[in-house]
Amino acid sequence: DANALASPEGKVLGVLAGIRERFPGVDRITTYSQSRTLARQPVERLIRYREAGLNRVHVGLETGSDAVMELMTKGATAAMHIEGGRRVLEAGMHLCTYVMPGLGGVALRDDHVAETARVLAAVEPSAVRLRSLVIPPRGPLAELEREGRFTALGEAAVVAEIRDLLAGLEGVHTTLVSDHDLNLLPEIEGTLPDDLPQLLAVCDTFLGWPRIDRNRFVLGRRTGLVGQVADLEQPGVREQIDAMAARVGVDLAEPIDGWIQQVRRQMV
Do 186 and 227 contact (CB within 8 A), yes or no? Predict the structure, then answer.
C-alpha cells in the first residue's frame, strides 16, 4: 500500500540487494512510505537502507493539519510528519513530500495552509510536489460533499491558498515542483527561498486579473489552449478561448467552477 518500509528490515535489504545485483549501474532507488511508519524507524535502520542503495523516499504528506487529517481519516498527525521526515533526512536520503492544495475545503482552508506551512518549515524536505485536489465522483470525500460536510474550493481560491502557503514558507530551503496537470499553474516551481518572490508574482498576476480573464485562463488551461499565465497575453488567445466558451455554453462573466469541476474529474 505504497509503504514499502513497513516490511521487515531483512526483506527490504534483500530487495535492495537484488536490485543492485541485477542492475549494477543503478544510481537511484526510490520508495514511497508513510509518515507514521517513518516516525517509528530508527535512524540507524534508515542509514542501513541508504547504504544498501535506497536514497529517495516519497511521502504523501498532503496536509499538516491534524483537523484535515482527521476528516480524511489519514491515519497520521503533524507530529508524525515532522518526526518521520526529519529521520529520513538525518539518514542522508532525499525526501520528497506531496502537498494537496484544496484538501481543507472551505471550512478548514486556513488551518490546512497554516499547519502545512508549519510542518514543511519544521522538516525542510528536499522537495515539495503540489497535487491539487480533485474529488472523484465516487468515494468517501464525494459522499462528504453530497452531505454538505465538505465544500471544495474553486480554481482561483486554490491559487490564493497556494499563494498563502508560499508566503508561509519564507526562509524555508526546499525545491517546489508543480508537475501534474491537476495543478492550474505549472510555472509555480523553483528553488526556495531564492525563487519565492517570482512564484508569488505568478500567483498575484493571476489573482489580480478581473474575473472574466481568470475564467478565460482556467477554461483555456483545462482545454489545452494555454499552458502558463503569460500565454493569455499572446495575440488572439482571448478570442480563441471566447470561441471555445461559446461552443461549450460557458458564460465567462459568471462563475464557472461547477463546469470546470466536471472537466477536472475526468482527469482523475
Answer: yes
| DSSP SS3 for 105 | coil
Residue 109 CA to residue 147 CA, distance in Å, equals 18
CA distance 64 to 116: 4
Q: Which of 39, 41, 57 is nearest to 9 (CA)?
A: 41
Contacts of residue 266, Cβ cutoff 8 Å, sequence gap at least 6: none
Tens of pLDDT, residues 173-196: 999 999 998 899 999 999 999 999
Q: Which amino acid is it at 62?
A: E
pLDDT (tens digit per residue) in 209-238: 999 999 999 999 999 999 999 999 999 999
pTM across the whole model: 0.94
Rg (alpha carbons) of the chain, rounded to whole number: 20
Q: Catalogue the long-range contacts made by 29-32 (C-beta closer than 8 Å, 24 or more residues apart).
A: 29/53, 29/54, 29/55, 29/56, 30/54, 30/55, 30/56, 30/57, 30/58, 31/4, 31/5, 31/56, 31/57, 31/58, 32/2, 32/3, 32/4, 32/57, 32/58, 32/59, 32/60
Beta-bridged to residue 130, according to DSSP, are 99
Give the confidence band of 248 by pLDDT, cuts at 50, 70, 90: very high
